[in-house]
Design brief:
The chain is an alpha+beta fold. The protein is built from nine helices and 14 strands. Helix 1 runs antiparallel to helix 2, helix 5 packs across helix 7 and helix 8 crosses helix 9. The chain is globular. This is DEAD-box helicase OB fold domain-containing protein.
């Protein structure tokens, strides 16, 4: 499950935006009133959401002008008359509709969140921390807080810094009440701040420069806080971080020398087909990353060339155009996106 401050913000915008879509056939005044009502109900800033909406439309227009999406690709379904048609919902995705798995049980919102988590990894890496869960015997019975009042979980950086989550973060309570076991393990963050004492006992937060470099380790004193914390799946890190991966002790895949991922069959699996060495897992991950890089590069080249591709080799991945001028993706692209989506959804 994807959890995070940015994911929550997107969900809030979607709820606010849906208020207009649900009243598509009503006067504009009623649409605006409905949006204001949603903003008031959930303590959201209506004017800020209007700004986000304008920026989103500008970004969509830029994607259309660059050829990355076609004019029929409705990001939010506000421009057409078939907004309630389920067949059009997938067209709002960055990936083509045909590349998605045909499982009706997959929630559209969950897919959006998973895709967003991949974008967060690609954009924010190496701003990553791991969640240190408390030992089983450190939790007091009937208490939601850890021993010493420090909370259940801590966040650890590559440089060995113990960080806290900003009190304004939606993840603050979740990390504070973290149990000894759970699925959440890796989180991206946008900025790092350190508290500094000032006159009168008050504290001030100072943004730390180059937060991923580790140069600030051990200096300045005060607690370190992270803002915009978003938990991400491990496969999003392995596939979209761009970091180097290596095999360690033939039992684990290590990302950038410190993030360790165990591979192989699960303990609950008795299938012989699931038994494979870590060396096989790292080969599969590397090949999948290679295909993703190749296809994204081809897509960007197509957009910059503003014209259809010509195949130069049997293994070249290239989109073609249908009779209406819309991009039709290669079957290989569909398969790769299906595999990536399956890995993210299964985690």
């Amino acid at each position: 499950t994807v959890k995070g401050d940015i994911i929550t913000s997107i969900a809030a915008y979607d709820a606010w935006s849906d208020a207009e879509r649900n009243l598509a056939n009503t006067p504009t005044k009623n649409q605006t009133s409905s949006r204001r009502a949603v903003a008031y109900q959930y303590a959201l800033d209506h004017n800020t959401l209007l700004t986000v909406d304008r920026l989103l439309r500008q970004f969509r227009q830029s994607l259309m002008e660059s050829g990355f999406i076609d004019a029929d690709n409705k990001l939010h379904g506000n421009e057409g008359n078939n907004d309630n048609d389920d067949s059009n919902k997938y067209e709002r995705k960055m990936f083509p509709a045909s590349s998605l798995p045909q499982d009706k049980k997959i929630a559209h919102k969950q897919y959006d969140a998973l895709l967003t988590s991949c974008c967060l990894v690609a954009g924010l890496y190496p701003n990553i921390v791991t969640l240190l869960r408390p030992p089983q015997n450190t939790r007091k019975k009937g208490s939601s807080r850890g021993v010493g009042g420090g909370g259940g979980g801590k966040l650890l950086t590559k440089e060995g810094q113990i960080c806290k989550v900003s009190s304004q973060s939606f993840q603050s309570e979740r990390i504070r009440n973290a149990s000894a076991s759970g699925k959440d393990a890796y989180a991206m963050y946008h900025a790092k701040h350190r508290t500094q004492g000032v006159c009168g006992g008050a504290q001030n937060q100072v943004t730390m420069s180059n937060p991923g470099s580790g140069k600030e380790k051990g200096g300045g004193g005060g607690d370190i806080y992270l803002s915009e914390v978003n938990f991400v799946p491990r496969y999003a890190l392995l596939l979209f971080s761009g970091g180097t991966i290596e095999l360690r002790d033939n039992t684990a895949i290590v990302l950038d020398g410190w993030l360790k991922f165990k591979v192989g069959p699960s303990k609950s699996s008795n299938s012989s087909s699931s038994s494979y060495p870590a060396s096989t897992g790292i080969v599969l991950i590397r090949e999948l990353r290679k295909e993703l890089d190749k296809m994204l590069l081809k897509r960007l080249q197509y957009c910059s060339n503003n014209g259809p591709y010509t195949r130069e080799g049997e293994n070249e991945i290239a989109p073609s155009l249908d009779v209406d001028g819309r991009i039709v993706t290669d079957k290989m692209l569909q398969k790769v996106v299906h595999v990536v989506t399956h890995l993210l959804m299964e985690e």
